[in-house]
Write a structure and sequence with these properties.
231 residues; alpha/beta; Rossmann fold; 2 domains; 6 strands; globular; transcription; WalR-like; DNA-binding; transcription regulation
C-alpha cells in the first residue's frame, strides 16, 4: 500500500448483516475500500488472489472453514498477506491461536468504528493491532502459563531480569511508549495519552523495535510483561 492510499480490504464473515454493517463503518472519508466479500473461510484464498487486498478482515467462527484455518492456509500460500481477526469472542485461546496462525491483529466486533478503521490502517501499514481488552488477555495468558509452572521460579526471575535489561536500552520516553503499546494502545491513542504527535509515536515505536530486536508490537507487549512493567 502506498502512503496516503486507502487500504483495500477483503471482508469475510458468515453473517450478511454484519458484513453490511462493517462495510458502512469502514467506508467513511478516512476509512478503507472493501474490494471483496466472502461468507466462509474456504473462499479466502480465491478472494485474495483475485482482489490482492492490503488486509483480510476475517471472522473466526464460520460454518465450513473457520478463520484460524483460513489464516493458516492463506499465509502458507501467500506469506505476505495481512490478516486482521474480527470476532465477538475474546477467549484467550482464540487470541493466542490467531497470533500463532500469523494474524497481524485481533479486534472485537464491539470495537468503536474509529478504532476499527485505525486497526485496519495499522495492519495495512505493516503494523500489528490489538484491542486493549485483547492485549490484556494476552498478558493474562502469559501470566497463567507462568503460574502453571511452565516457568519455574528461578527461570522466571532470569527471564524478568533479561527483559528489564533489554528495556533499559530505551529512553524514558520510549519506555512510556512501550508500556502504552503493551496495553493495546493504537498510535493515535498513545499520542493523545502522552501528548505527542502520531509521527513521533511511530518514530518511537520503530526505535523500540530496532533497539530491542523485536518484529512487532505483540512482542513488545510480552517483553514489557516479562519485565513486570504492567500492573
Amino acid at each position: 500500500m502506498t502512503g496516503g492510499a486507502r487500504p483495500r480490504v477483503v471482508l469475510v464473515d458468515d453473517d450478511p448483516l454484519v458484513r453490511a454493517g462493517l462495510r458502512m463503518m469502514l467506508g467513511g472519508p478516512d476509512g478503507v475500500d472493501v474490494v471483496g466479500e466472502g461468507e466462509d473461510g474456504e473462499q479466502v484464498l480465491g478472494l485474495v488472489e483475485v482482489h490482492r487486498p492490503d488486509v483480510v478482515l476475517m471472522d473466526i467462527r464460520m460454518a465450513r472453514t473457520d478463520g484460524l484455518t483460513a489464516t493458516r492456509d492463506l499465509l502458507a500460500a501467500h506469506p505476505e498477506a495481512k490478516v486482521l481477526i474480527l470476532t465477538t469472542f475474546d477467549v484467550d485461546d482464540y487470541v493466542m491461536e490467531a497470533l500463532r496462525a500469523g494474524a497481524r491483529g485481533f479486534v472485537l466486533k464491539d470495537t468503536p468504528p474509529d478504532r476499527l478503521v485505525a486497526a485496519v490502517h495499522e495492519v495495512a501499514g505493516g503494523d500489528h493491532a490489538l484491542s486493549p481488552s485483547v492485549a490484556a488477555l494476552l498478558v493474562r495468558h502469559v501470566a497463567s502459563e507462568q503460574r502453571a509452572g511452565q516457568l519455574a521460579g528461578s527461570a522466571r526471575d532470569r527471564r524478568a531480569q533479561l527483559a528489564r535489561d533489554r528495556l533499559a536500552r530505551l529512553t524514558e520516553r520510549e519506555l512510556e511508549v512501550a508500556r502504552a503499546v503493551a496495553r493495546g494502545g493504537a498510535n493515535a491513542q498513545i499520542a493523545r495519552d502522552l501528548y505527542m504527535g502520531v509521527p513521533t509515536v511511530k518514530a518511537h515505536v520503530s526505535s523500540i523495535l530496532a533497539k530491542l530486536g523485536l518484529a512487532n508490537r505483540v512482542q513488545v507487549a510480552l517483553l514489557v510483561h516479562d519485565a513486570e512493567e504492567l500492573e
